[in-house]
Amino acid sequence: MHPRNPYRNPLDFTALSAAYPPLSPHVITNSSSGRKTIDFRNEEAQRRLTEAIMLRDFGVVLNIPSNRLCPPVPHARINYVLWLQDIVYAHQTILGPSSRRVRGLDIGTGATAIYPILACKSDPSWEMVATELDDVSYGCACNNVSSNNMDVSVKVEKASVDGPILFPVGKQNFDFSMCNPPFYGSQEEVAQSAESKELPPNAVCTGAEIEMIFSQGGEEGFVRRMVEESERLQTRCKWYTSMLGKMSSVSTIVHVLRARSIMNYAITEFVQGQTRRWAIAWSFSDTHLPDVYPSFLSLATFPLITPKQQTVARISSITPKHALYTLLPPRNTLSQLFPSFSPSKVENALFEVLQAIPRVSATITIPTSLPAPSSASAPSTPASGAAKGDSPSTSTSLPVIFVEAQENTWSRSARRRNQNCQLRKVGDDHDEASVSAKDHSQGHFYPSRGCEGGVLCSVECQWIYGSDRGLYESFVGHVGRKVGAALKAGT
Q: Is the dihedral of CA 250, 252, 257, 261 positive or negative?
């Protein structure tokens, strides 16, 4: 579950039903635990629960038609939105906040338009475009948006059977797209899935056939088509994303991406109770995501406390034996340990090493907080049972060094090249060496500390921008070796 999910603790159904009386007839006592709950296999109870949460916690009066999907808010829905916030605000501490509004696209928004509403209620600086193919769901989505006075933030557009899935991207640019695709490929697949389960489901499925089935391959076929369309649209959308309900689909889509040489991608998972879902993101930009959020930066002020981390680009909890391990993208976050050296010594050595590398700029900054969207940590009205007071302040006294490499001057071949040729000077202190977009790379380094019974300092580098991964990794390795040598020479 996402660390910022306000429903990490069990819901207080007594308080929730008091805030929304239509839920009261469905509140029961669990015979095993003695706690109040509802029968999640009761379709009406599920609908009243979603209505109650949306009204009390988000101020939204949600109309859920009886013949369309009822979205369970506390589960993958809110986790997906929070992950997208992590993507959008990944480097805000270092690069600063953007002055423009964030624009997202929801593919197949459904009758409730749940994702756009959650996204814009959680962060009012966002605006969303939502698409819907089904006539009934389209009409209901429009009504849910307008009846809650969200027409300025959310626009619902009608999709067509023969048109492209990502058709709004051709008309304007987006920071991200999101999608909860149809899960099955046929009615037979639905029946086979139900028969293969050893135990009955914990919750009733309320989805209509048009919401659950995509005849051209289910979720794999749907997302494959999104990948194909995104190749033509490229950076018109910065991050294309989709949820996936089957682990096998993750493997399929990763192979689709790799076959097209799309290597800037991310995989995460959403876990809440017995429900597990995955999500994948890919981009044609040269901007890269951190492996986890928050990164080691948050350990600076809390050396003995490891804050809860959420996967952004790589699932950190799986081992090399896990089926998904080989599918994970290359690491964007690299670190090197320097045992027995204080953070201040490592910091000084690091900065001196960076300053000595030609055509590399290094700027020290001390962020006041980790990237955090406005109103992103909790609903507008905190959920009863939501965890409180367990997120430490994220201010830090340790520095972050923002680094920009304009040219490869550190590799062995680059040093050999510089020895064999004299750059012709132009003007006073400028040379004529050209700098292409491929040469330009950005990242940040920061020392962090965290161990029990001693000092353990590490330097972590996060790749922010660039197109040559080999160059980034060689730079990090070069800096690590130089810092290690400098520290040993100073002892």
A: positive
Structure tokens given for 397: 């006294």
Query: Which alpha helices (DSSP H) does 71-154 contain, by range?
Result: 78-88, 92-95, 114-122, 135-147
pLDDT tens digits, residue range 195-221?
Answer: 555 444 445 455 555 656 666 778 999
Q: At what angle do helices 135-147 and 114-122 cross, to 10 degrees?
A: 20
Q: Find all residues with CB under 8 Å of 262, minimum gap 6, and list them.
A: 227, 231, 282, 284
- Report DSSP letters for 377-439, one per residue: SS-SSPPTT---S-S-----SS-EEEEEESS--SSHHHHHHHHH-PPPEETTTEE-----TTT
Residue 227 host element (H or E): helix 218-233
β-pair type (430-431, 425-426): antiparallel
Q: Which of 491, 489, 478 is nearest to 336 (CA)?
A: 478
Euclidean distance between CA atoms 250 and 243, whole angstroms: 9
pLDDT tens digits, residue range 285-323?
A: 999 999 987 554 333 322 323 345 678 999 988 899 999
Residue pair 36/11 in contact by the 8 Å Cβ criterion: no
Label residues 216-242 b or e (16+ Cβ within 10 Å = b). ebbbbbbbbbbbebbeebeebbbbbbb
Contact present, 236 and 173 (Cβ < 8 Å): yes
